[in-house]
DNA sequence: ACTGTATGACAAG
DNA sequence: TTGTCCTACAGTT
């Protein structure tokens, strides 16, 4: 489920490679792993949906999972990677296999700067500027639903978080972003920071209330969200309305989020 | 064993 | 707006 929370969680897990010399290989052959094979990992960071593995003395690796990408961890290392693995980064103790990413490329300092320049503030990053987020949201020339999906407005929000945060704040997706009140914009930022942060902690997106004592890991996927991919709104039971915006399905409750 | 669909983003037309 | 990447899984046959 690669929205921003997935990448930030992975970045946290990949800290185990920092300071380690890693063997790099590309069984699938579509990444020039020789260029980074044997390098020492200097740091791993997530910016929005992008993952940056910085290496000592050589360009870093830029990964974007796209819609289908996955990073799988094997510890101990049980054997050779599957043939479709784009990139394996491995130490003697652990292997990380990248499957089906939309991007896996070398990225030097200039490329990194160019990438980050195209991203809006990331609610999951401590160094993000909420005031900049407000400016970019209210300056967006379209609906708030479109704004939230634009990574140059906010980085890391995807289709699930869009649906759930707008529902949580009772904002209809087709409201013009320029007409959001200051209070709504601030609530979007802080609400996303909280919701996405919970996503990092859970390793998936759960927006329904979970009774104390119940393990969040036990919440079935089909009822983990309030409107996303639901037939009926989890809050009021009203049938969820779907529409299509720029090729993506938008979910909203017409009662909780009136136009 | 198939078919349809998906959390993303880009290029082409 | 559509096609593409070309995996994984849920649902259907």
TrEMBL record:
Residues 2-71 form the Formamidopyrimidine-DNA glycosylase catalytic domain. Keywords: DNA damage, DNA repair, DNA-binding, Glycosidase, Hydrolase, Lyase, Metal-binding, Multifunctional enzyme, Zinc, Zinc-finger. Residues 226-258 form the FPG-type domain. Coiled coil: none annotated. It is an enzyme of class 4 (lyase). Its EC number is 4.2.99.18. InterPro entries: FPG_cat (IPR012319), FPG_N (IPR035937), H2TH_FPG (IPR015886), Ribosomal_uS13-like_H2TH (IPR010979), Znf_DNA_glyclase/AP_lyase (IPR000214). Belongs to the FPG family. This is DNA-(apurinic or apyrimidinic site) lyase.
């Amino acid at each position: 489920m690669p929205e921003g929370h997935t990448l930030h969680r992975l970045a946290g897990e990949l800290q185990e490679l920092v300071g380690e010399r890693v063997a790099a290989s590309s069984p699938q052959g579509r990444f020039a792993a020789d260029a980074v094979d044997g390098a020492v990992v200097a740091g791993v960071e997530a910016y929005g949906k992008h993952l940056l593995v910085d290496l000592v003395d050589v360009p870093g690796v830029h990964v974007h999972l796209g819609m289908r990408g996955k990073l799988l961890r094997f510890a101990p290392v049980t054997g050779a990677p599957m043939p479709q693995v784009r990139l394996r980064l491995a130490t003697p103790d652990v292997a990380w296999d990248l499957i089906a990413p939309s991007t896996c490329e070398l990225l030097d300092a200039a490329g990194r700067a160019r990438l980050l320049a195209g991203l809006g503030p990331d609610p999951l990053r401590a160094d993000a500027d909420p005031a900049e987020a407000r400016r970019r949201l209210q300056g967006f020339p379209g609906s708030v639903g479109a704004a939230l999906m634009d990574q140059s407005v906010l980085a890391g929000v995807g289709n699930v978080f869009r649906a759930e945060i707008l529902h949580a704040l009772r904002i209809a997706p087709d409201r013009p972003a320029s007409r959001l009140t200051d209070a709504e914009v601030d609530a979007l930022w802080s609400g996303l920071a909280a919701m996405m942060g919970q996503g990092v902690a859970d390793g998936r997106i759960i927006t329904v209330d979970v009774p104390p004592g119940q393990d969040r890991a036990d919440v079935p996927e089909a009822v983990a969200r309030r409107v996303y991919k639901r037939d009926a709104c989890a809050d009021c039971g009203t049938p969820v309305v779907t529409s299509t915006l720029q090729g993506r399905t938008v979910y909203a409750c017409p009662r909780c989020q009136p136009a």
